[in-house]
Amino acid sequence: MMQEQAEQQLTQDITNLSVGISQQWFLICDKIIKQGHQLNEKIARFSLENPLSALDIAEDLLEQMPVAVLALNEFGKVVYCNQQAKQLLDADLIGTLWTAVVIDKFNADPDRLGRTMLKNGKIIHISTQAMTKFPGQLITLTDTTRDAELEQRLEHLQRLGAMGEMAASLAHQIRTPLAAALLYASHLSSDDLDSEKRKKFIQKTVSRLKHIETQIKDMLSYAKGVSTEFEIVYMDELINEILQGAEVSIAQSKSKLIVKEFHKIVRIKCHRDALVGAIQNCIMNAIEAVGHHAHIEIICETADSHWINLIISDESGGIPMHLQQQVLQPFFTTRREGTGLGLSVAKAICETHGGELWLKSTPGVGTQVGFKLPLLQGDVAW
Questions:
Q1: Is 278 left (phi over 0), alpha (psi -120 to 50) or beta?
Q2: 158: pLDDT confidence band, cut at 50, 70 and 90?
Q3: Residue 298's beta-bridge partner residues?
Q4: CATH superfamily for domain 54-143
Q5: What pTM value is reported for the model?
Q6: Contact 281/176 with Cβ under 8 angstroms?
Q7: CATH 3.30.565.10 region(s) of the chain?
Q8: Residue 223 CA: distances (Å) to CA of 163, 168, 227, 263, 330
Q9: CATH 3.30.450.20 domain range(s) in the chain
Q10: How far apart are CA 317 and CA 327, in angstroms?
Q11: Are 363 and 319 a contacting pair, CB within 8 Å?
């Protein structure tokens, strides 16, 4: 009995507590609602007493913008300029005619990109837009001085890079004729040399030096974008010049250079020295790949009635498959002292002639580098 009374009392106490908590909760909620209404009334009164117009908001935004902003009225007078405009133009321009600002502050008319230079040395970008709510214009000035400096520095670095590539390419192109000129010149100091041989060596030395001079002129012409003059050349003339230029390298390496039979009256229109130099460099590459006692062939064959393939073939053991595409890229080389420009320069020269350079290499066997060149119009391949 006593236990039942205790349980009933406990239940009654819990019920009373729950009712008390519920009443307190409702009182708290009612108080929060009342305070919320009072806060809303205060906010409304504050808004009426301190109105924040759209113009105030716009002006605040304009002051915070990272660019200079000016507003002109219908008469071209400055009616507003933000703090950035005052700092950029070193003046408070309110009430000043925009034309007077341009005369006083600007050093030049805007270029096609909207950029101009101020008299204080800063470079800016100008943008103008017509107002929509009232007559006038909105002008924004962006300080691009830092960007212009970075552009100039980048252009300078690009020019230096181009000069470096050109210097390396030129060195690669003149290596063979320079070696020949040095060898011929060394023979001139011999006391046992008769007058006929001395004259022959002098002529050969001068010929190689002139070839170097021509190469330098041609490379400078290519660098400046100046079109070089092409001439009509018979294939046998071209081959003879190639053989003459490669004579020293072939002799020094104790190699053999064989020319396959070809139709001598076939003609091409080309820049003689540039093409001869490119082919000679391919021969040099073959010698360096094989080392001494290289066996190299020059093959002339037609692709069809409009094209001729002039091929340099060697037995160097070939180029690994994974490197065959890379060897045509500038500055790629597997030799410690190589420039990596031989084939890329040859490719560029071949393309300048309206042709293409191709590479066929069989690992363990050898490599063929082909100059596919257009035949002279009117000539028919054999």
A1: alpha
A2: low
A3: 259, 312
A4: PAS domain (3.30.450.20)
A5: 0.46
A6: yes
A7: 162-374
A8: 9, 13, 10, 35, 16
A9: 54-143
A10: 15
A11: yes
